[in-house]
């Protein structure tokens, strides 16, 4: 991916998406946690603390010895990184001249020692950056990663670190009878949106509950006869059985009504209006309310479209359901195809594949069907 097209992808590292800065070798002047805070960095020229100037970012001490400083970010939503932004906002005489970004994929909840021993892949080689600038770097790597390491040479301050990409769910964790097929953390994404004047539509599929109106999706006021909508590509094909449409914190700017439609892109073209079917008829909704609707006639879909009438804000949108057989298989194959090789070896071995089988599978990627998988693993992918 070239240029800055990757900025359309959600930030997988964002704190409100479950991200965390799990390690930094130095944070003498400003805390590492600031790197993944939502929103742009602020600055108060009069703010000084016991350690000196207060910055809304991560800042290390001035180095008097050779070396460099680094921080490790655990992605809130593991996935394929399409690009990163190293934002040095407000750092003018104390920003790092150069940075690099590496990634790794690890199972479970690795300790610092595990991260030190991990095999890291370079996503952004050592590159120059400018001060007080959102320095953007496109990434061309199709693997699913769980952690990123941001290094600055030799020291300095970085306000925000954004990691834009596509979520790839771990199917081993999807063990419930029903799951949120639209959730960002399960692989859902926004396919299109009519208007995102105030805030991103990706917010509606973010983890957790909103804490303010600013954490939802809000469009501009409509002055015509149309209505606004957001289209969600589901994690995989599935039957939605329960919808949740949350207008929390939207008091005087919630929609008057909503409607939900579905489309199975494996069998129809979403650009054809006739390929969409009704999931929820147009229904009045109330402000500041978590609405839940049982779907009377569930059927397989890969996309949902939420229409709001005529406009207004939505805090969260949930689509609880069950994967279809094809959707279950697609999730497993995508996960296997995108694992970095060291993690793939560990994960496939842990699922019972022999060393020879793992070697053959890695050589055969990308896999289109479960046929190339060992019998036990193929059965899991087809379950």
Question: Would you give an account of this structure?
Answer:
- With 383 residues, this protein is mainly beta.
- It has 3 domains: 5-167, Jelly Rolls (Sandwich); 172-323, Jelly Rolls (Sandwich); 339-382, no CATH class.
- Helices cover 13% and strands 35% of the residues.
- Helix 3 crosses helix 4 (355-364).
- The longest helix has 14 residues, at 325-338.
Map the helices and strands.
Layout: E1 20-24, E2 48-49, E3 52-53, E4 58-59, E5 69-87, E6 98-104, H1 112-117, E7 121-128, E8 134-138, E9 144-153, E10 157-158, E11 160-167, E12 179-180, E13 189-193, E14 228-246, E15 257-263, E16 277-284, E17 290-294, E18 300-309, E19 316-323, H2 325-338, H3 341-350, H4 355-364, H5 375-382
Antiparallel strand pairs: 1-5, 2-3, 4-10, 5-8, 5-9, 5-11, 6-7, 6-9, 12-19, 13-14, 14-17, 14-18, 14-19, 15-16, 15-18
Helix pairs in contact: 3-4
Short recap of the structure:
Residues 18-167, 187-322 form the Allantoicase domain. The protein is mainly beta and 383 residues long.
Q: Roughly how many Å apart are the termini?
A: 34 Å
**If you consult CATH, what is the topology of the largest domain?**
Jelly Rolls
The structure class reads mainly beta
**How would you sum up the global shape?**
flat
As for the number of domains, it is 3
Mean pLDDT: 92
Radius of gyration: 22 Å
Instruction: Spell out the helices and strands N to C.
Output: EEEEEEHEEEEEEEEEEEEEHHHH
Task: Report the portion of residues in β strands.
Answer: 25-35%
Number of helical stretches of at least 4 residues:
5
Can you say what the CATH homologous superfamily of the largest domain is?
Galactose-binding domain-like
Please write the CATH class name of the largest domain.
Answer: Mainly Beta
Largest sheet: 8 strands, antiparallel
Task: Work out the helicity level.
Answer: 10-25%
Domain Allantoicase: 18-167, 187-322
EC number: 3.5.3.4
Family: Belongs to the allantoicase family.
Organism: Nocardiopsis sediminis
């Amino acid at each position: 991916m070239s240029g800055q097209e990757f900025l359309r992808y959600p930030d997988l590292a964002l704190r409100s998406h479950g991200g965390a800065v799990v390690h930094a070798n130095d944070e003498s002047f400003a805390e590492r946690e600031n790197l993944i805070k939502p929103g742009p960095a602020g600055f108060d020229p009069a703010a000084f603390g016991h350690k000196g100037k207060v910055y809304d970012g991560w800042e290390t001490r001035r180095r008097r010895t050779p070396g460099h400083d680094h921080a490790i970010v655990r992605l809130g939503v593991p996935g394929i990184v399409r690009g990163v932004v190293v934002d040095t906002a407000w750092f003018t005489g104390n920003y790092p001249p150069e940075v690099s970004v590496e990634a790794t994929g690890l199972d479970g909840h690795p300790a610092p020692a595990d991260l030190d021993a991990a095999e890291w892949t370079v996503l952004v080689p050592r590159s120059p950056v400018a001060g007080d600038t959102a320095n953007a770097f496109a990434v061309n790597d199709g693997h699913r990663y769980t952690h990123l390491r941001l290094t600055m040479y030799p020291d300095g301050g970085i306000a925000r670190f954004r990691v834009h990409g596509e979520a790839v769910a771990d199917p081993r964790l999807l063990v419930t009878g029903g799951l949120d097929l639209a959730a960002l953390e399960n692989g859902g994404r926004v396919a299109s949106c009519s208007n995102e004047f105030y805030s991103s539509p990706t917010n509606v599929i973010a983890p957790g509950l909103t804490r303010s109106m600013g954490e939802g999706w809000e469009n501009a006021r409509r002055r015509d006869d149309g209505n606004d909508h957001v289209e969600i590509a589901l994690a995989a094909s599935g039957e939605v059985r329960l919808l949740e449409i949350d207008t929390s914190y939207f008091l005087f700017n919630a929609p008057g009504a909503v409607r939900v439609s579905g489309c199975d892109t494996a069998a129809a073209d979403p650009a054809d209006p006739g390929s969409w079917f009704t999931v929820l008829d147009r229904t009045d909704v109330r402000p500041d309310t978590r609405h839940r609707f049982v779907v009377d006639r569930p059927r397989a879909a890969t996309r949902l479209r939420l229409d709001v009438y005529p406009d207004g804000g939505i805090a969260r949108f949930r689509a609880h359901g069950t994967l279809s057989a094809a959707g279950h298989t697609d999730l497993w194959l995508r996960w296997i195809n995108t694992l970095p090789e060291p993690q793939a070896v560990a994960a496939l071995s842990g699922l019972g594949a022999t060393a020879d089988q793992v070697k053959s599978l890695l050589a055969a990627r990308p896999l289109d069907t479960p046929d190339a998988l060992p019998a036990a693993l193929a059965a899991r992918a087809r379950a």
